[in-house]
Amino acid sequence: MAEEHDASMMNNLYWWGIPTFFRAPNEGPEGADIALVGVPHSTGNGTTERDQHLGPRAVRNMSAVQRRVHGGFGIDPWTRKVVDVGDVPFPRANDNEHCIQQITDFYTKIDASGARPVSIGGDHSITGGIVQALGKGKIAGGEPISFLHLDAHTDVFTKVDHFLGAEKSAAHWGAYLADQGKVDPTRSMQIGLRGHPRTLDWLQPSYDYGYNVVTMADYRRRGAADVIAEAKEVLAGRPVYITFDLDCLDPSVAPAVSNIEPGVKGFDIDEAVALIHAARGLNIVGGDVVCMMPTKDSPNNITAMVGGAIMFEMISMIAENVPV
User: Fold this and answer.
1) What is the CA radius of gyration of the chain?
2) DSSP letters for 103-117
3) At what angle do helices 302-320 and 269-276 cross, to 10 degrees?
4) C-beta separation of 310 from 36 below 8 A
5) Can you tell me the distance from the alpha carbon of 197 to that of 202, in angstroms, rounded to the nearest whole number?
6) How confident is the model at residue 286 (pLDDT cuts 50, 70, 90)?
7) Cβ(163)–Cβ(147) under 8 Å?
8) What's this model's pTM, rounded to 2 decimal places?
9) Which residues pair with 284 in a beta bridge?
10) Going by fewer Cβ within 10 Å, which terminus of the chain is more open, N or C?
């Protein structure tokens, strides 16, 4: 009994042992219900803010201290088989297009296994690589997926051919995935947009593709219940992929993000969690949390812990639909 107590105590210390997401075993996806994945990629957002590749390690470190049961759902998600499959390898880390293909190849194998991936990036270009594999894939039942996308930015910037050399960049995935037929924008939600526009028509590409757009101003005017009701209606009956850019949160909640957006209040954590719960009970094929900048985090690593908290919500929603 004493040895069990000691082991339990040690497992709560983030600075002890070999870091995996939530202390999940480091195994392949075969036979797993949920595959936790690190995607340490920074070259899809070709600014000087390149430290997003450190995000997976930061969340692995901090996740040891985070929740193991979901009180609100009344479940222990770890009674399902959840594994940490490691990181996508990037032998040409400064070649964005090669990296995006590496991501697609990695997730194609996960999709074939049937495990539903929950990932930590990495910049937001990783979503393009992931959904190139999942869209119309095995888990999605051959259908294009629907996005539940929380972000300060649209990432449907079709008016530029590339972002500082990256073509399948953090600014383009919302467009090219739709062009490929991997995503159905008309059955997808983009919520929380408040980015610093350079032109008054900055949202037009999202409208042109048919995305259901809820700006932060819309959210404040309409209220949470109305927006959540719309999301449930739009996503109903669809394979859903949740992509969560930490910059949708107010900087006071998550200060260490790559494209911080001051000037307009972002979501607090309860608002953001309530919004992703709009997908609860639906066919969630996977999810990601992106754009963390651990080198800019506060000394208590609050942004890494917030990233882990959002990851845990995704894990729990998927686990709810998996029979024990």
Assistant:
1) 18
2) HHHHHHHHHHHTPEE
3) 20
4) no
5) 6
6) very high
7) no
8) 0.94
9) 240
10) N
Q: Which residues partner with 82 through β-bridges?
A: 34
Full strand arrangement of the beta sheet holding 189-193: 82-87, 34-39, 116-121, 283-290, 239-245, 146-150, 189-193, 212-215
CA atoms within 13 A on the CB side of 106: 25
Angle at CA 288, nearest 5°, toward 308 and 181? 170
- Token reading at 61: 């470190």
Rounded to the nearest 10 degrees, how much is the dihedral formed by the CA atoms of 228, 223, 190, 192?
Answer: -130
Q: Can you list the alpha helix ranges (DSSP code H) found in the chain?
A: 2-11, 55-63, 96-113, 126-134, 173-179, 204-209, 216-222, 224-235, 269-276, 302-320
CB neighbours of residue 324 within 10 Å: 7
Pair of tokens at residue 294: 């651990």
Residues 6+ apart with CB under 8 A from 311: 21, 36, 59, 63, 118, 120, 287, 289
Q: Give the SS3 label for residue 139.
A: coil
| Nearest by Cα to 211 from 232, 187, 182 | 187
**Helix or strand run (H / E) with residue 148:** strand 146-150
Structure tokens at 108: 């194609």
Residue 181 burial (C-beta neighbours within 10 Å; 0-12, 13-18, 19+)? exposed
* Pairwise CA distance, residues 201 & 45, whole Å: 22
Whether 279 and 322 have beta carbons less than 8 Å apart is answered as no
